[in-house]
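Section 5.1 Outputs to date
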Amino acid sequence: MKTGRIIGWTLLALALILISHEALKSLEGEEYRLIALGELWFRLDQTMGTGSLNVTQAFIQRYVWAWLWEGVIQNILTAPAWAVFGVPGLLLAWFCRNRSKSGRFRR
């Protein structure tokens, strides 16, 4: 339970950083633009000089199941990055929280 709570709070912190980055960019450019998870992954790939996004796509389409990439993973990659990290983080933090036997939170 403690590990799930730590992972949940870490994902929530990452989501907060990403949405703050989007907000700051919108203040600079006077236009709000969402950063998709795929765009974030692509930027990290370019910065680090790896091709992990392309390799992952090729591996899943050739060796796992082509529909999995086109039907599921593409939808996840086009979702806002803060939501992809924030929703699982919120769920983990909520379900792995400390609870006493009476149903109230511990202090």
